[in-house]
Automatic annotation (TrEMBL):
Segment forming the signal sequence: 1-26
InterPro entries cross-referenced by the UniProt entry: PhnD
Keywords from the UniProt entry: Signal
Organism per entry: Phenylobacterium hankyongense
Source taxon at top rank: Bacteria
GO cellular component: ATP-binding cassette (ABC) transporter complex
SUPFAM superfamilies (alphabetical): Periplasmic binding protein-like II
Gene3D superfamilies in the record: Periplasmic binding protein-like II
Family, similarity comment: Belongs to the phosphate/phosphite/phosphonate binding protein family.
GO biological process: transmembrane transport
Name the record gives this protein: Phosphate/phosphite/phosphonate ABC transporter substrate-binding protein
């Protein structure tokens, strides 16, 4: 009997041990911050360095930048937990939420003017290339576009310019080169490319650099098309990031550059270097406009192919997006 009781006690103790909750994962000591790859990594490191240093001081954590060669690299870094948070474009941010467990928690603001920016098509001034020439679609011009997940460099011109006309850049131009905004600015400015997509933020950034090459490039550019206004960029962190870490990051982000103190003015000057004003609170509803752009483009493509099923699917998506928008902004 004693032996049976002892065995039962051992078994119950073992079962109790199995039912104990797993120990909590320790909060990370290092944060990896993804920076959208619209310009050269070295240029961005120089501009972002002071901001990341201030984040380190405020959070008490080591903050490392992560530069990807394209937007897909940034999304994959978040997905595989090689990055914790960062600055994304709207379209790449949407992919980060969909595929990488991302969550919008903040958004950028225009440092000196109204929120929002435009996608553009640029040509070299004096080249004689007009929008009608671009839309002629005769495979005689080389053309530059953004990364496949670029909002202003790819999604906007496809949604608002090429798609509604049933045009595919791959069959319209002699060659199509995919590059970041900075590379396309200099390529068109130097005459390497006749025309390319870009955005007003990158053009503003070129003016702020104020080097001889930047001034020469800016003076040589002409905008021949502008998209409707695109929302400011989202800041995204991993949804499963440690709550205490989220709290530290949020405290820093939403107080940075706010107020009239000398320190706040210093911080706003740093923010202007990375082309934003103080950050604002946001959530995944920030991505509704880019979802609408995406669905609109799909509807245009479906109508061009006379695909009834795809048309119905795109229209249903647009209806759902409008319903969510009405709920988010009653």
């Amino acid at each position: 009997m004693i032996t049976r009781r002892l065995a039962l006690a051992v078994a119950l103790a073992a079962l109790a041990g199995c039912s104990k909750p797993a120990p909590k994962t320790a909060a990370p000591q290092t944060l990896t911050f993804s920076i959208v790859s619209t310009e050269g990594a070295q240029t961005q490191l120089q501009e972002w360095g002071p901001f990341l240093k201030d984040m380190e001081a405020a959070t008490g954590m080591k903050v490392k930048p992560f530069f990807g060669s394209n937007y897909s690299a940034l999304i994959e870094a978040l997905r595989f937990k090689q990055a914790d948070l960062g600055w994304f474009t709207n379209q790449s941010g949407l992919e980060a939420v969909r595929r990488a467990g991302g969550e919008v928690f903040a958004r950028t603001t225009h440092p000196t003017g109204p929120d929002g920016y435009q996608g553009v098509i640029i040509v070299r001034k004096g080249s004689g290339i007009t929008l009608d020439r671009i839309l002629k679609c005769d495979r005689t011009l080389d053309f530059g576009m953004g990364d496949a997940k670029s909002t202003s460099g790819t999604l906007a011109p496809m949604t608002y310019l090429f798609g509604p006309r049933g045009l595919d850049p791959a069959t319209c131009f002699k060659t199509v080169r995919s590059a970041n905004a900075e590379a396309n600015l200099y390529a068109v400015g130097s005459g390497v490319l006749p025309a390319a997509t870009n955005n007003t933020r990158s053009i503003d950034r070129l003016g702020a650099i104020d080097t001889p090459l930047a001034r020469k490039t800016l003076a040589s550019l002409e905008v021949i098309w502008r998209s409707p206004t695109i929302p400011e960029d989202p800041m995204i962190w991993r949804a499963d990031l440690d709550p205490a870490t989220k709290a530290k990051v949020a405290k820093f982000i939403f107080s940075y550059g706010v107020g009239d103190t000398p320190e706040a003015k210093r911080q706003r000057a740093i923010l202007e270097r990375i082309q934003t004003g103080p950050f604002k609170h946001a959530d995944n509803s920030h991505l509704l406009p880019v979802r609408e752009m995406e669905a609109t483009g799909q509807l245009v493509a479906a109508k061009g192919k006379h695909d009834a099923a795809a048309i119905a699917k795109a229209q249903a998506a647009l209806t759902q997006i409008k319903t969510e928008a009405a709920a988010a902004h009653p």
